[in-house]
Amino acid sequence: MVEVVFPEKSGRLDVRFFRLPDDLEPLLTSVYHMKIDLREGEKIEDFLQPEWANLRFSCGDTFSRKTKSADQGNIVDGDYRFVVTGPRAKPVHFEVGSTEIWGIGLKPLGWATFVGEDASEYVDFAGDGEANPAFARFLPLCEALCEPDPAQDETFAALVEFLRRQRSKCRDADRIEAIHAAMVDPYLTQIEDFADAAKMHKRTLERLCRKHFGFSPRFMLRRQRMTRCLMAFMLSEDKNWRQTIDLHYHDQSHFFREFQVFMGMSPSEYAALPHPVMGAFAAERQRVWGAPVRETVAAQADQANGA
Q: Is the residue at 112 inside a domain?
């Protein structure tokens, strides 16, 4: 477990990632527990990075989320105890006070297995899971994960059993895993190579990527490259972009343009912001799975961002 102390706020943040059982590892990026202790009325804020779908259950102060993009600015959308975010290519600016949060990150195969909706319809979605019928099967977790004074290991065990009961057959499972395995290859840059690695026609790759991953194959590779840079930056000691820029960017201006597309701000603007939550998550991922954090089907971390 990683602990972050906030001297200026007289509070702290504790986050713990749980090792996934083998049968759920292909479906989930992570399961984690986070506890935030702050003085009454105080909040911390941060930006979720591009990530796969996530389910977050808040036991205490609810999330107040704000979306930020280059063309929208900040929009306050509401306070939810069950926050769902779909596959993302944009950040989510959020703030939260003292609370306990259980998070479940869904890989694309997990989305297809547990949700089953067209992922392209939920790209950059963030909203109330209790108000959307697509996530009704998860509603029992709003209470089950927030029992008073539970042991974390017992709660995690109960969550694992719940997810096992909710699994449904996914006919595209093998092809989704093949796409995911190909996508995380850091040397993959061309769509033709992507289709060859996934062992399918480009048209099939396009259709399955949009349906289960939410994005076109070309955009997925761009997004994947950016998430590698973001995670490398979060884990670097001196927070230097020059040392963490992916070698497949043509030059720094190319990277800066892409960063603006995905994060809605410049790299220097992002670096100047505090990252109490994402910094803690990166450190805990590193502690549990080692560094650098890698997104592979065999590894137990995904990233993008799956805080």
A: yes
Burial of 20 (0-12, 13-18, 19+ CB in 10 A): buried
Cβ proximity of 10 and 148 under 8 Å: no
By C-alpha distance, which of 101, 86, 90, 177 is closest to 134?
A: 86
**Cβ burial, residue 204 (10 Å; 0-12/13-18/19+):** middle
Strands 53-60 and 63-69: unpaired
Q: Which residues have CB under 8 Å from 79's CB, separation 6+?
A: 62, 63, 64
Residue 240 in any domain: the answer is yes
Contact 33, 39 (CB under 8 A): no
> Which token pair is 189?
């840059």
pLDDT at 56: 93
Q: What is the DSSP string of 183-207?
A: HT-TT---HHHHHHHHTS-HHHHHH
CATH number reported for the structural domain that contains residue 249 in this entry? 1.10.10.60
Domain region containing 259: 173-289
Domain assignment present for residue 301? The answer is no
pLDDT digits (tens, 9 = 90+) for 49-107: 899 999 999 887 555 544 444 333 333 355 788 999 999 999 888 888 888 999 999 99
Q: In the chain, which residue ranges form alpha helices assigned H by DSSP?
A: 108-114, 140-144, 152-166, 173-183, 191-198, 202-208, 217-235, 252-263, 267-272, 276-289
Count of structural domains within the chain: 2
* Spatial CB neighbours of 4, under 8 Å, sequence gap ≥ 6: 12, 13, 14, 15, 276, 279, 280
